Amino acid sequence: MNGQVPLGYEEIEKKKVLTLPKLPSAPPGYEEPPAFPPRRETKPADWRKELPGAIKKTLGELPVIKNWSKFITKQVPSGEFWKRAGETARSQLQQFISEKLLDPREDIRKSIMEEKRPRKKVSLKEIGKQGLEFITFLPVTFDKFVQSPGEVIEKEPLNFIMLATVLGKGGAKAIKTKAARGKPITGKDIHRVVDEMPEKLLTRKQKLEMKSKIPEQMELSFGKAEAITPVQKIMTALKEAKPLRAKQEALYTAERARRFKKAEAVGKEITGEKGFYAEKAKLPGKLPRVRFEPIRPKLTQAEIDSMFKQVTDSPALSYLETLPAREGLGKILGEAGGDVPTGGELLLLKRVFSREFIETIQSKHTMWEKIKPGLLEGVNVPRALMASYDLSFGLRQGIFLAGRYPKEFGRAFASQFKLFGSEKAFKALKAEIASRPTYELMTRGRRKLALTEMDSALSLREEAFMGAAWAEKIPLVGKGVRMSARAYTGFANKLRADVFDHLIKSAEKTGRNPWKDPALVDSIIDFVNAGSGRGSLKVLEKAAVNLNTVLFSPRLIASRLNLLNPRFYYKLDPFVRKQALQSLFAFTGMTATVLGLAKLSGAEVSLDPRSADFAKIKIGNTRLDIMGGFQQYIRTVAQLASSRTVSTTTGKVSKLGEGYKPQTHLGILSRGLEYKLAPVASFAVNLLRGQTTFGEPLDVPEEIAKRFIPMVIQDVIDLAKEDPELLPVSIFGFFGTGIQTYGAKKKKGVVY
Fold it and tell me: Are residues 654 and 663 in contact, defined by beta-carbon separation less than 8 angstroms?
């Protein structure tokens, strides 16, 4: 009707006599009667009684029904035949329904009389469509099953059960029973169904080929007629797989023999120098390593391919990252036996698959490999607690970049407050960085931007929070550790990513193309990582996690030493070198400005690099270190070079090696290193020596307590005891400024 009043409606209202105008939607060949009586003589129930017979008669003439017997008695018609037959049947059935079962005049008449819209005509057409699909699907499924049995079993389990019911005998009954009870169906069950299929449909050779594609060890759990995922199958198989320690050496021997045989064969064909190098080319490569029984037979090839495709198509991995991830997946599915992927490969797989899947793989580690991460995690718990309950990244690790990149630093500084209180904000930030066009540049090269994680391997966490996973589980205290680690990590990642993007854009403005200049990108990454407190450990890189159990912040130490080393700037790309030197000068100028303003405000500021108070703001007995970890190295070099030290309490200049209990060059170096020790390591040193770093009697309970109390709280306690009036100054310690409070006799505060 489309909202228009039909022709003749006014006359109907006046005379109360129903007249029906010509309808444009009437079927072809239909002659319109002059008028409708008030009610039809034929009731809806009349044509409904005719429905069964009419459908039976119509369907009996359809080609699809006439040829159905071919499927059972002769051969399966081609897919094209069933497609044509289905279209023909659907067309005939729709015509029958339209002409004989649905009279459009009836609906229009009712809409006029009852002032309602015509009813929607859906039921019979839908029933007919579904009926035809049921009739035609079975032969198509059979064709698919013959070509790719594994794919049909995996992706169309209900269709497979229907196919087994029609064509099988006892095997089909067993499968239906197992499926109904949720029990797994084995490859042997499917082999039995294939054997029971009529020989007119499948020759013996075809049956053997099909069965070869379905391993007998395969298990398919339908449950509610649904197959379990390949990931679940691997997890189950890994739990059941037994270790193969004795088989390892035999595999090595067999592989060596195979390679030597190939090399020898090549040597017979090619002689001389070329032959020598051709033989060598056949020998290299890692020897196969297995730890547990092969689990590959319990999966179909289609399932294995789907796992690899899941890794390849994952948006969480770049193309270069999919290569080691797939390498790790291949180790699990080795033909001779499975092996555990490396730590880096597992980290990449963790981005694609569930945590339970990764933990199941890790369960195949050796006893020592299982214990070691726990030991390292436990040793780092005190440091995680000491670094918690503050927002210290900005004025500590990130301070070097603040002067040159104030916008990027300001945005990252502001974001930490939201990150501190919201897990959702942290995940959103991580996703935002990963979605940037430059993310590939950050992660694809030989060097990678330090985008750290929280719930990941120790090597990928910020070093201050390597023990956070266990510390977070401590009742009441753990929540604060989590919040601090989230703010710290999020601030670091945002600052690094923003400064990186700024430098990439600046390089493009100068005509450089970072996408085709990996050396430029590597230089930018080196500078940004070092400038944000995560320097490279170079030859010690692989020992980074172990090194963190000894030193409080080895990467921060490397960062500060690199930024004070002229060689670091010399090795950078010219464009990056200019940016790095500008950052150094901006940081120096910012530091000098703050110190000058503090001195004008009445605070004491020492400019003698031989003094421990060098470049610190001293108010009473409290010192503020605003240099973010650079001051200690400058002071140490000055003391060693001049062979003199200056007392922070008396101002007396002492020459190394002279006087009562003199300081020595070795003593200065060892004390500087001791200040950088991790909590557990420093406690062990004090315990062996029998006194503290400052020569005081050792109070074991107090020393233990200090290593489980956040440093910001220790600073507040020291201020409250020595200078209560300066308690507001502790806010700087909350944001990362170093605070020490000590008088002439006693030092307090820990320097890291």
Answer: yes
